[in-house]
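Our platform keeps sequence and structure together, in a single record for each protein. Such a record has a labelled line for the sequence and another for the backbone structure tokens. The tokens are whole numbers drawn from a learned vocabulary of local backbone shapes. The remainder of this section carries one protein's record, kept here as part of the documentation:
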Amino acid sequence: MRGAQRSVKNTAKNVSLIVLVVLLLSLCAANWLTGLNIAQMPADNWLRRAHDHLFGGAVGYELRSSGVAAADPAQIALTVNGQLSGVQYDVTELDAAVSAVQSLWAQVLAGGDLTTATEDELNAALRAGDCAELRYHGAIPLGAIAGWMGGSWKDGGDTNVEALVYAAGVERLFVRTSDGALYAAAAKADKSTLQSAQDAFRGQPCKFSGEAYAVYPETLLFDNETLSLPLLNTEAINLFSTRSGTGLEDLLEAFGFTAYADFYAEQNDQVRVFIDNVSTLRVHAAGLLQYAAAAENTTVRAYDEGEVSGQSALDAQMDCARLILDAALRAGETDTHASLYAANQENGQTTLVFLQMYGGVPVLGENDFATFTFEGGALVSATIRLQRFSAQDTSRIILPARQAAAGAMGEACSLMVAYRAQEDGTYVPARFYLKSAA
């Protein structure tokens, strides 16, 4: 009997010790979390989530947002050992270049007052010392670019810009807007940060066009440019194919529908219209997607009312659209990706327009690839036109930017490489002049 009593007492002591050890470990973990720089962690990091659940401060948008860039640069350049180097139209090279210069741009895009600048000021700055450039397809809100690069631009963050040039020699940032206007602000990066970016950056020798051509002075002219791209054929898409796996299910889920949502068929089941009490999703087997809902009863929300505002609200809307596009591109097995082209905010509505990209080069059609409209945090409409491409064995050498710049006439403009459809359905790459939207 006494042995049994001693056994019960020992068991109780062991349980108590185990509980105390668990409590001690929990307190140590909580203390460690409080000492971390949580604000610098991505919102979807498990440590960030653990901290937020323990100590509060993160709800809704902060837990949902991935913070992934909705648009990659078309071109990146940096002065290395006195020589400007750049990369363009190659997803792998651009990703490596972004990693090399991200810390530099995080410091440059720390926020300042934008003021009108002149072309002469920009030309002088380009000659004054080391420079760095980011150029995008379309016009992207400056605040969004800053966030993707790790910066925190505040005033003027809603300004839509196509190109950014940091001139270290004069410690100024120049930005080019969609209407061709030029603005500048004071900016500075540590010499050690600039040096680290230069050590890590790999690119091809190039120059700024400067004052010699009828294109924007920040236009990159590569010394030995031999950009060769394949012609593209279009291939049929069937979103209702049983061989597409969970593609359609994932697509429905992205729009807030379940795999068992009610639908009715049209055009010999080439179109299915999914419905619920508040929204409609029209899916064409060939790839056209059309979504509509009332703002107060949408099935898709970027954030809940009152959670965020300003740049954070726009970030959440872009992130919501990007996640839907990712699901759509997987469902269509398109081998392409999407890139934000424009963000317009007016009368309480935000409209986001995306390009379809093949290997880092835009594919342009008669209509926009994807358009999303938000009212506050609610998605009220969306249209996506999926296409699938295959590369031909035939390639085309693109007219070098130096030759295109030499042939430009009249008002200053920018240059863009893109695929355009031909009458036979083939998509052919070429370089185009882009006039300002003014």
